[in-house]
Specification:
Layout (H helix, E strand, L loop, with lengths): L1 H16 L5 E2 L9 E3 L4 E3 L5 E5 L10 E6 L5 E2 L2 E10 L7 E10 L3 E9 L4 E8 L3 E10 L12 E8 L4 E6 L2 E6 L9 E10 L10 E8 L1
Parallel strand pairs: 2-5
Antiparallel strand pairs: 1-11, 3-4, 4-16, 5-15, 6-15, 7-12, 7-16, 8-9, 8-15, 9-10, 10-11, 12-13, 13-14
Length: about 220
């Protein structure tokens, strides 16, 4: 019975952390809980980007989405393939993945697209406006392309943009799972690319760190 209660509580906490469209990422003190932490995204000897933290400041409130950037300069977006691998972290519902077309817009502030997957076997696509407001373009969706996902397993995320169709296409592990339009301002077809890791309150810091590896495929 005790184990059942613990599992149920874990599920409820994980569900509570997933934002509704228009929600704001916020920490306990009301400041935006999206934070640029380039120093937590470090390149290893194989050219991969490794995220690692067990800092207790991040498993507060609804949690944090921590972002870092690739070395490439801002450019017109066409296509990007990213291999992601989460090797540690208590929360299987916490998302991780890529950020796309990051710009600091004079009207909309820091804005970008975001693709997240989780060890639950689902994915979502959203846009962030003014570094705080999150709007879903594709809500959390289960996919059989993520059936084999688990700790220390590679997952390929490919996002591409077809200018003629005016559609973004999302493929996971080589299979297209969705296509969507970004048809309301701010538009996202240019900018810097990067990485995102979400920390949830149930992540057990400092005992169990969150570690995610990212590899760009040219």
């Amino acid at each position: 019975m005790k184990n059942f209660i613990i599992i149920l509580l874990t599920i409820l906490l994980a569900s509570a952390c997933k934002l509704a469209t228009g929600d704001k990422y916020q920490s306990d003190d009301g400041t935006p809980a999206i934070e640029e932490v380039q120093n937590l995204f470090k390149e290893n000897n194989d050219g991969e980007i490794v995220f690692y933290t067990n800092n207790t400041k991040y498993n507060k409130g609804k949690g944090y989405s921590l972002i870092g950037f690739s070395k490439k300069e801002a450019e017109t977006f066409k296509s990007r393939t990213l291999i992601v691998n989460k090797s540690s972290g208590r929360s299987i519902a916490a998302g991780f993945g890529g950020i796309y077309c990051y710009t600091d817009d004079p009207e909309y502030g820091k804005t970008f697209l975001i693709v997240l997957i989780s060890l639950n076997g689902d994915y979502c696509v959203g846009e962030v406006i003014n570094n705080s407001i999150f709007n879903y373009l594709v809500d959390w969706t289960a996919s059989n392309t993520l059936d084999s996902i688990g700790y220390s397993k590679n997952t390929e995320i490919k996002l591409s943009y077809n200018e003629i169709e005016d559609f973004f296409h999302l493929a996971i592990n080589g299979t297209e799972v969705n296509k969507f339009r970004d048809n309301e301002a701010p538009f996202h077809t240019y900018g810097k690319q990067g990485y995102v890791v979400t920390i949830y309150p149930i992540d057990d810091f400092p005992e169990i760190p969150v570690e995610v590896t990212f590899r760009e495929i040219e």
